[in-house]
Amino acid sequence: MNYILGTAGSGKSTLTGELKNYIINRNPETSVITLNLDPGVKSIPYVPDIDIRDFIILDEVMEKYSLGPNGGMILASDLMVNYLDDLKDEIDEYNPDWVIIDTAGQLELFAFRETGPLIASALGFSDTQRAVNFLFDSNFVLRPNGFISTLLLAASVQFRFRNISQLNILSKVDLIDEDQIEMVINWSQDFHALAESTNDREKGLIRELSMLISEVFVQMGSTSELIPISTREEKGLDILFGHLQRIFDSDESKFY
Amino acid sequence: MNYILGTAGSGKSTLTGELKNYIINRNPETSVITLNLDPGVKSIPYVPDIDIRDFIILDEVMEKYSLGPNGGMILASDLMVNYLDDLKDEIDEYNPDWVIIDTAGQLELFAFRETGPLIASALGFSDTQRAVNFLFDSNFVLRPNGFISTLLLAASVQFRFRNISQLNILSKVDLIDEDQIEMVINWSQDFHALAESTNDREKGLIRELSMLISEVFVQMGSTSELIPISTREEKGLDILFGHLQRIFDSDESKFY
What is stated as this protein's family in its record (chains A, B) (predicted)? Predict the structure, then answer.
């Protein structure tokens, strides 16, 4: 089971669909299903095999409880836990090798309420291998401070789902140029490089902070190394797939 | 100018209204205005003096661009930057001592897109004193891992608005009991206590992490000490006000 997480607009749905295609193209005998966990999404760039909207639709929650979009999203997201058994039954019927899970549009609804960790622990069996893919939005990480705050956000998510291996992805790299991609990836691998990319006034602070955050990732046993991905240019999916396989192969369980 | 930030449902709007009342009750001659920056909110527990909904309404954005609530919220939030001059003009007309700013319902729309930092730097004059109040939702910080991930989220926000002093608030403490409040406050003051509150398996990890995060806060020059607040029981507003005054008095500028 592979959970796709990231802030609103970071490219979760697109990656979900493209990753399924990638895996099936690679080996047509692999059974891959997608699961949409966003009760409020209107159009999705893939056809989800299982869909929370069969059970909860944001518009109906808003109408039934007379809520605006924000309150409705909170409640709809909290209500999802009532349908865990149904979702699990549907997954069991497919008996797939892979389940790719596209989470709610707003990161905080999934990651910072009780819902997300609860779903992650309830779905699947005890021997199910799981991973979290956290998307760094290319638009917001080109400056050191945007990069560091996203890194802290990634650490926060990692800690929230800390029993699950996390891969950090630099998403939508077709929006930035090769030099910029290289710069950001370099920051993620070498925190000294990050410190050097900023001006003198902030150097000390950013150096200190980036060292501390890299320690956080080291302590959690995860790598902060970013995997650059562009679904538009079909770039990076092979690297992501390789990393996922390593996570899922790290014990003897089946992939999902 | 005091920005109220926190995840969806953490109590931003309630605090905004109550803080205004508190300041006015304390000194009726103080001029305090509230500014609502959530284009999607339906009902607010106070009457905002300035309202982004005079310029952008989420429903209209959704309809005009055929978007669902999630896409609509993203676009509406990004569109806000077009009305900065209007908002600034309105503030100037009031010429207030305090501006309390209630931000978008979803934290990530304000904090992790370009909008929030852009608004924070554009509103007000160069000598305007500013503070960020980040709300820790009492419901989600009772367990060490929930507390730590919220702490990382707070650090991420602090870094996003790093030129602005940040106060961290334990919100809605009427929902938890006195012992629990004391425990969480204790965690925020003494990271050893946090490490001791968890089980043996996680002790090492949580101790390491909590030390690292406390270092992050120390480096950023902010305190991670939580201020417990219950607007329902009118608790803690005096402490918050004292902290805010210290921030705003730290140089010779006017409060807002």
Answer: Belongs to the GPN-loop GTPase family.
